Fold each of these.
Amino acid sequence: DSKNTGWSVVEDPQLVVEPWNYVFAAGNGLWHGPDSSEPSDHSFVSPELKVGPDGMSLTLKHRYSFETDGIGYYDGGVIELSDDGGTLWVDVTAVPGVAISNGYTQSLAAAPSKNPIAGRRAFGGPSPGYPTAWITTKVEIGKILAGKALKFRFRSASDDTVGAPGWDIDEVVATGLTNKPFGSQVVHRGACVMKPPSMFQIS
């Protein structure tokens, strides 16, 4: 839950701009992706993660609440990866050999929705126990991408009706890498506020 993690935020400038932001309150820090009330496409992008010979895993502790009327699901969040530095992105569920636990929950409304990810499977509606409970999602990538330098992005997108609280990510842990794109847990050294250890880590 550290702000200085090597991750970046990216927006589609043709749509409403409301970037992911770091929130620190009640002794805890997290990254928040908004669910906007206008068409939007907000991404929280990792640094390059170099996959080891036996594959890798990415585990996140998160919670979310995206627009729904109890019948349809209109806004949502997805996890995508890129192996070319961020030019081309694909959904992690489309990669052969990838296993996901606690993955997508809903199918988003299709056209004529103005959501950039309309019609896709995604995290939709509220996560179980929201806002009190957090869930853990794990993405396991096998040897098919061994040796590749991957980027991941958490992509929150919305249509043109109403918004919702959005997506909070509290912890991200990567294992099976050959590089160290973001540091291990380190206690914040600020003299004014002692933040908890960073939970954006590699092991």
Amino acid sequence: STKFGDTSDDTHNFTGSLNLAGQLTVDTSVPIKLLVNGGADNDSAEVRNGSGELKIYSGRTTAGLHQSIVFASGDNYTSGATRMIITGSNGNVGIGTTSPVQKLQVNGSVYSNGGEFFVNGDKGITAVGNLLFKAHDGTSYFEGMRLASTGNVGIGTTAPTSPLTIKSNSTSSSSSGLTIQANGNTNDIFQLGEKSTDGSRL
């Protein structure tokens, strides 16, 4: 085998390609074991594998603590360049945060283009505060319903005062509040709406 770096002044510079038929083992005393520099702007560095698995392992500190795996971008790993982290202590994944408290924590918005969100089993969606349900009308986002931190549900209102609070959207429509439709069609069988101001109609 051939060893590089046997002595402190043993330095080898490659300007072309380095092709390896076997394994490359890097084990030195410097903090960065292997540094791959893409070079000039817009250059890229790639890691590829064949039909097997591509594995990335993180070791332990001298105190036996698992190290985190950090995905970063920026100029020479500048401050704030961390994009994603897999914490070594519990395996939690953080995007936009370096200290995720759940299996996946995203600090920011998550966008799904045509996908759906599934929950398997008797699990739920938990909000620290109010849980908002929003939709998009083609121009902007709007809140359609909320589950308040009090347990009250509000439709058309951001401050529900009872287990279910529906805010009227008109003072003259019979369907401005609550509508129940027939089972076999879309015919209305019950409507509760507002009549004039603060009045009601069935």
